[in-house]
Every structure is written in C-alpha cells, then in structure tokens.
Design brief:
homodimer, about 140 residues, mainly alpha, Arc Repressor Mutant, subunit A, 3-stranded antiparallel sheet, 6 helices, about 10% strand, DNA-binding
Amino acid sequence: MDSRIVNLRSKLDVYKAMTGGGNLADCPVREVIQGLNGKWSSLLMAALAEQPYRFGELRRLVPDISQRMLTQTLYDLQRDGYVHREVFPTKPPSVEYSLTDLGRSMFGALQHLLQWAELNHDAVREARAGFDATQA
Amino acid sequence: MDSRIVNLRSKLDVYKAMTGGGNLADCPVREVIQGLNGKWSSLLMAALAEQPYRFGELRRLVPDISQRMLTQTLYDLQRDGYVHREVFPTKPPSVEYSLTDLGRSMFGALQHLLQWAELNHDAVREARAGFDATQA
DNA sequence: GGGTGGTGGTCTCAAAAAGAGACCAGCACT
DNA sequence: AGTGCTGGTCTCTTTTTGAGACCACCACCC
C-alpha cells in the first residue's frame, strides 16, 4: 500500500478502460473517442440532435465548414453508426441526415461536456489569457 | 408553428450554445471543445485524473505518444487551465503535472463520454464493420 | 432551346498539424 | 571517462485539413 490509494474508483476505471488494461495500443475506447475528435463531429452531432437536416441545410447552418469536410465528417459519423443517411428520389435527389438510436445515446453523453463548456468557457478563457500573459 | 416543434429543449440549448446564437464563427463553446479535440488530450486527462504524474512517467504510460506531442498537449492543457505544472529543483529537475480544480471539473463532464465509449464500443465496432461490408 | 439556379457531391492543390527520431545540457553514479 | 536519467527542442516526413474549382442532373423561365 503506497500513497496511490485511490478514492476515485470510477475515474480509475475510466483510465483503465482507455488504456485497455495495459493494452494501450488497440484500445476500443480510444478508437471510439478518436471518431469524435474531429473538428466538426460534435458540432454536427449537436445540429442533428436538434432535428434531421439535409446536406445543403447543414452547409448553410455551418458556414465555415468546407463541403469536403462536411461530406467526410458525415461519412465518418455514418460509418460509426451515429448518423443515418437517406436519399430521397426527388427531381434533384435530396439527402437527409438524422441521428440513429446509437447516435442519440452517444449525444446524451457528449451533451454533458458541451454543457460544461457552456457554463465554464469564461474560466477557460481567463486561464488562457492569464497563461499567455506570463509567457509574454 | 411548423414541424420544428422541439421537445428536447436541453439539446436545442446545447446546439444554440455551440452556434453562439447565430454567431457561429467565434463561439466560446466551440473554442473550449476544440481544446479537447486533440488526439491525446482526453487520454492524458484520464491519466492525470487518476494521480499526478511526471513527464517521463507519462511518456512510459503512453508509449505511442511522441515526446513532441506529449510536450505540446501538456502545454495546451496547462494553457487552458486544466493542468498544473510544477518544477521540483531536484538534481536533475523533475516536473510534475497534476489536474487543477478546473481540470477536475472538466473531467467530470468528459467522464460521461468515456464511460459511454466503454459501454458501447462494441456497438460502434459492429456498425463500422457492417458499414464497411456494404461499401466493399 | 439556352440561360440560371439548386441538388449533393468529387478532384486538385496548398497549408496546417502530427509523427519519427536525432540532438542537447546538466548532474549522479561508477 | 563513460553511462544513464532528467525534460525537453529541432528537423524532416507523412497525414490531415482547408479553399475552391468542377461535375451531372433536372426544373424553371422565357
């Protein structure tokens, strides 16, 4: 028994899960997190959690995303099972993206982080400003 | 009143927070999330949530991180106020990294996502495999 | 029938970020 | 004098991202 007695079992469990219990290289948790790490993933998830959107609607909704990254991010989210893509055979075929059950479930967890960010972005901004000041 | 009646107020709020209420370009929530988007940020946060670590310990703990990215990710986390860096004037100076209160607070939110990933990585893996099969 | 505009993309090329690995000063121990 | 550990930085290559042109299809409008 050393000083590493852990009173935060759940945190330790999470850490062990991320390290795959010693098998850190191909850890499933890291793979999943990696999929959400994209610059646009969480934003698109938040948008689609509100309601389904079509490709062009998303592009207008997020003006600073390039069409290339919108295509790719949606493809990745679809691949991981968070997003459903449905093509409607209208005159110019339209494509609708919506969350799957898995996507809604995942967003429930992601939401905690987004809400934290909403409540604490001032603290982060302050910390950043203070740090930059000392480094100047 | 159109079909967009929203029964998920909290989700909508999160979305609005991310979009900055129409000011999507410089939205504070996106800035914060961006800081956690790094490939190694969440892993290092999980490690430091368990206990403080020294630089070399972290390097050994996460063998597949390059020294360069370890330095940089820790710097970024410190800049955003999640991590405290303390230099001890030992013979070869040692450096200890630990979570700040802000860091612990943030990890509390991040943890939900990590736990979700731990519980659902099978579903994601399956979705991925199924999707890849249809694309082949 | 010839322009215009909206559909959802792909392709190419430049810029930014990440990874690999060499290198460094300082000191302790042998 | 050599070896090893400390916490880094520097340079080079590869991967990821961003900007923007291009595309086929069809509807609409004259």
